[in-house]
Amino acid sequence: MTTSPITTAWESLPFDIRRAAEEAVGNLRPMSHSEILLVIAQAIAAERQRPKISHDDGGKRG
Description:
extended, 3 helices, mainly alpha, about 0% strand, single chain
């Protein structure tokens, strides 16, 4: 079976990340452009709220 590059990239992600993405999206269904933008924007906002990695402390967060 041949898989697309997107499927391969998806399946290479850790399970917990795939599960979180599936929960954020909800049921697998076609999404509107606005829904896709919202999911991406929420992910960006969450990433910005995470503590930054400081290279001065050996890469530990905080």
